[in-house]
Amino acid sequence: MFGVKKRVSIDASAPAVPGDAERKPAIAPAHTRALADGHEALIRSENFKKIRAVVFASMNMSAALMKTREEVRAGIEEIALEVVEREQLNVTAAEQALMVAEMLNDMFGVGPIEPLLADDSVTDILVNGPDQVYAERHGRLELTPLKFRDNAHVVNVAQRIAAAVGRRVDESSPMVDARLADGSRVNVVLPPIALRGASISIRKFSKRNITLARMAQQGNISPGMVRVLKIASACRLNIIISGGTGSGKTTLLNALSHHIDEHERVVTIEDAAELQLQQPHVVSLETRPENSEGLGAVSQRDLVRNALRMRPDRIILGETRGPEAFDVLQAMNTGHDGSMTTIHANTPRDAITRLESMVMMANGNLPLTAIRRQIASAVHLILQVERMRDGVRRVTRVTELAGMEGDVIITQDLFAFRYDASAYHEDVKGTFESSSLRPVFATRAAYYGVEAALLEAMRS
Question: How far is residue 3 from each of residues 162, 168, 228, measured CA to CA in Å?
């Protein structure tokens, strides 16, 4: 299929891949406003259809895709100018430049939404059929003027994205999770499941290397929390990051991973690879869906079990969402200290309840008390992350599991974000407060020689 060849060739070629460090904006800055004003009229005009048809008919696409974007641009500009002059089309130089950029985006990128991928301020891109493209900037959704030619154009882009990572999406398999070359996560839903046209949801991968220190500068976390979390990572605590969709769980997990010792062997397991660990010894595993015959699926649970045979020092699971929770707890309880994962939950207590439910999915015969004892023994910290109404992601609670009392897991908050209800503005006002309690893992910190630093951080 043409789209498959196109995407694979692009990934193999050097500077024209979306997400490259040297990537340049798909549209020159001088043309950005013109694109916003006339994008729909441009891509749906008869002139654009004529020029595009001639360009794609004239070029050897296989050879073109082995070249860089700028090399191909010169050829497209030459053919487009020739068509305009021969057909005497009423096309201005600015419109011609936009048409060339649009065709390049179709060849090398993801069509009309390529400028949004090049925009570092955009964190989410949501395509609801050919006529609606939303972008999230600074936690707020806004409707953009960008549009696709038609629903077939959206489907074509979606299929190229899926094909790039060896997955397929069509009427028989209308939903897929995939990723772009820069690590951005993509979810695609096609008709007949999507009633108003194909839907593409892109969670962009940040090019900025987010660290705990930078999060503290941005107000996502307090300096005291930073010191405690650095110590927690150095002491090889098992950590669960809890939060809602888009709350910044993966970003925090990436930031925490910076404090893993470079001599440790880390195995990461994900549905769609997003984690960007900086350590030299990292093995990344990714699940695989079943093929058209319903065979060949590899689940997260399969990968967790296999990871235990790979001599990992730490296992990092991108997200725990099913029966693999049982195997993750087993790993945490059998010498793989320092393991981390994320979970969807609104509070630390809800995260514990969800873990219990997911373990029951794997083994319904286990008594609830036994499950809770496993959780209390395996998990040391739960970090609660929240995207607040002002769009800022904050770590609202750092909760420690302190053991069992009867049939109940005892927890204590080491830090909490207290918002100021008396100062209601668009921006959320509040403070990060330390409980000043002595953490239960202080004994473990003493083993690693950092107990004094831990107690000092709790007093700050």
Answer: 10, 11, 49
SS (H, E, C) the chain: CHHHHHHHHHHHCCCCCCCCCCCCCCCCHHHHHHHHHHHHHHHCCHHHHHHHHHHHHHCCHHHHCCCCHHHHHHHHHHHHHHHHHHHCCCCCHHHHHHHHHHHHHHHHCCHHHHHHHHCCCEEEEEEECCCCEEEEECCEEEECCCCCCCHHHHHHHHHHHHHHCCCCCCCCCCEEEEECCCCCEEEEECCCCCCCCCEEEEECCCCCCCCHHHHHHCCCCCHHHHHHHHHHHHCCCCEEEEECCCCCHHHHHHHHHCCCCCCCCEEEEECCCCCCCCCCCEEEEECECCCCCCCCCECHHHHHHHHCCCCCCEEEECCCCCCHHHHHHHHHCCCCCCCEEEEECCCHHHHHHHHHHHHHHHCCCCCHHHHHHHHHHHCCEEEEEEECCCCCEEEEEEEEEEEEECCEEEEEEEEEEEECCCCCCCCCCEEEEECCCCCCCHHHHHHCCCHHHHHHHHHC
In which domain, by residue range, is 304 found?
212-459
Min mean pLDDT across 2-6, 147-151, 159-163, 439-443 is at: 2-6
Looking at the fold, whether 88 and 227 belong to one and the same domain comes out as: no
Per-residue b or e along 297-311, where b marks 16 or more CB atoms closer than 10 Å to that residue's CB: eebbbbbbeebbeee
Alpha-carbon distance of 237 to 245, in angstroms, equals 24
pLDDT per position as a tens digit, 339-386: 999 999 999 999 999 999 999 998 888 899 999 999 999 999 999 999
Distance CA 390, CA 404 (A): 37
* Domains contained in the chain, number: 2
Domain boundary among 150, 182, 203: 203
195 and 217 belong to one structural domain: no
- Residue 261 corresponds to which amino acid? D
Specify the pTM. Answer: 0.76
Please list, in sequence order, all residues whose beta carbon lies within 8 angstroms of the beta carbon of residue 397, skipping any fewer than 6 positions away: 347, 348, 382, 383, 384, 413, 415, 416, 417
Cβ–Cβ < 8 Å for 89, 83 = yes
Distance, in Å, from the CA atom of 204 to the CA atom of 125, rounded to the nearest integer, reads: 8
Provide the sign of the torsion angle of the four alpha carbons 219, 221, 224, 227, taken in this order. negative
Same domain for 243 and 199, yes or no, is no
Domain end marker among 170, 203, 236: 203
Question: Which has the minimum average pLDDT: 6-20, 67-81, 115-129, 301-315?
Answer: 6-20
Same-domain check for residues 291 and 246: yes
